[in-house]
Amino acid sequence: MKGRFYRFTRDLHLYFGLFISPFVLVFSVSVFFFVHSWTPKLVAETAATRVVSSLNLPTDLPKLSGRPLVDALKPILESMNVPGEIGFIQRRVETLIIPVSIPGRATSVSIDLARREATIVTRETGLADALMTLHKSPGGHGQTIRMNWFAMKAWGWFADATAYLTLFISVSGIYLWYMLRAERRIGFLLLVAGTLTFLGIAYAVSH
Amino acid sequence: MERWNRKLHFYSGLFLIFFLWLFAFSGLLLNHPTWTFHEHWKNRKETNYERAIAAPGPDAVGDLDQAHDIMRQLGIEGDILWTTTRTDPGLLEFQVRRPGHFFFIKANWTQGSATVRQADVNLWGIAKFLHVFSGNVADDPRNRRDWTLTYLWAYSMDGVAAGLIFMVLSSVYMWLQLPKKRWTGAIALGLGCLSCGLFCLGLRWLF
Asked: Which residues have a Cβ under 8 Å from the Cβ of B69 and sit 6 or more positions away?
C-alpha cells in the first residue's frame, strides 16, 4: 500500500511538474525583467498607426465608466479589428484613450467622440514584454474591469493552476525526499538552512 | 551526473521551499483581490505624528540625499517612492516603504518640522508586498531601489528564479532518464508547452 502511494505520488509529481514547467519558466524568467527593470528586445519594436472614421458610437458612451464602459467599447473595438484586454481608460476632453493589450502587443486607441474617429497605434513589444504582461495578469489592480478578454481570463485559470500545482509539487516533493532515508540528514539541514534564510531576510526587510 | 542532478534537484527544492510557498501563495492572493480574508489596506493601522527636523546638511544636495537625511532624523528605514514633483525647495514630500509599513512624509524645513502618516498592514499585506517588492517602478527611472535590504530581497528573488529554472531543467533531464515514462511525460510536457506557448506567442499570431 505504502509502495503504491509512493509510486502514485511520484508519478503525479513528475507529470504535473512537466506540465507546469513552461509556465514556471515564464514566471521565473520574467522575474529578472521585473527586478532589474530590464526588457530585452530580440527584435526592434515596431509601431503602426491607422485611422478609422465614421464610428458608430452609442449616445451614452461619454456617461459610462468602469465595466459598463468596457462592455460598451468591446463591439466598437471589435469593429475596428482591435482584439485584446482593455486596460484603464483615460478620459480627456471629447477623447477616450483606451489601452488594449495582447501579450507582446500594445495598442492605444484614441476615440475622438465629437468627430467619431479613432486613431489606433499598435506596437509589437516582443517576447520579454509578453512574459511580463502574463506574469502580472490577472494581478490585483482594476478588479472591476480586468479579465475582459476571454484569452486573458483563460490565462488567469492557468496562472492559478500553476500556483496550486506548485504547492502540490512542493508538498509531494517533501514526501518523496523524506522517503529516501539516506538523504534525510542533508535534506533536513538544507530545509532548515532555507527556512532560516527566508525568515531572516523576510524579518529584516519587514521590521 | 544523473545522481548529482537528482540530488541537486531536491536539495535546491528543499532550500527554496519557503520562498516558493510565499510566491505561489501570494500570487494566488494577488490574482484574487475579491477574496476578502486577505484584505490588508482596509485593515491597516494608521498613526500620524509631527517631528522637529533640522534642514539637511550641505552634503545633501539632491532629493535622494535630502530624503535620506530626513529619514535618519526620523528614524525611518525603507525604500523611497517618489510620487510628487517637487515645486518648493523648502518642502520635500515622499513615501518610504518596506513590507508591512508605509510612511507618507512631508518635510518642511523652513518650518523645521516633518509630518508623518504611518500605515502598518497585516501579515497578508506583508506577503503580497514581498511578492512585488523590488524597489523599482517600471518606466520610472526616478524610482529605483535605494535601500540595502531592498537589494538583498531583490537578489533573493533572482536566486529563487534561478533555482526554479534549474529545477525545471533538472526535472526534464531526470524524466529523459526514465524510458518507461517517456511518452506519458512527453504528453504532459507537450500539453504544457502548447498551452503556455499559445499565450506567449500564439495570441499575437492568431489575433
From this structure: B56, B57, B60
For B183, nearest residue in chain A (alpha carbons): A15
Q: Report yes or no for ipTM above 0.90.
A: yes
Mean pLDDT of A168-177: 97
DSSP-assigned states of every residue in B109-136: TTTTEEEEEEEE--HHHHHHHHHH--S-
Block residue for cell numbers 502511494: A5
Q: How far is CA A37 from the centre of its chain?
A: 17
B6 touches chain A (CB under 8 A): no
The pLDDT assigned to A1 comes to 52
- Which runs of E-coded beta strand occur in B121-192? none
Enumerate the residues of chain A whose CB falls inside 8 A of the CB of residue B199: 103, 130, 134, 151, 155, 158
Q: Which amino acid is at A164?
A: Y
CA distance linking residue A161 with residue B28, whole number of Å = 9
Residue type, A32: F
Write down the domain spans for chain B: 2-34+155-206, 45-120
- Show the cell assigned to B46: 494608521
A-contacting residues of B 129-168, CB under 8 Å? 130, 133-134, 136-138, 144, 149-150, 152-154, 156-158, 160-162, 164-165, 167-168
CB contact under 8 A, A34 and B138: yes
The answer to whether A94 touches A113, Cβ cutoff 8 Å, is yes
- pLDDT > 90? residue A138: no
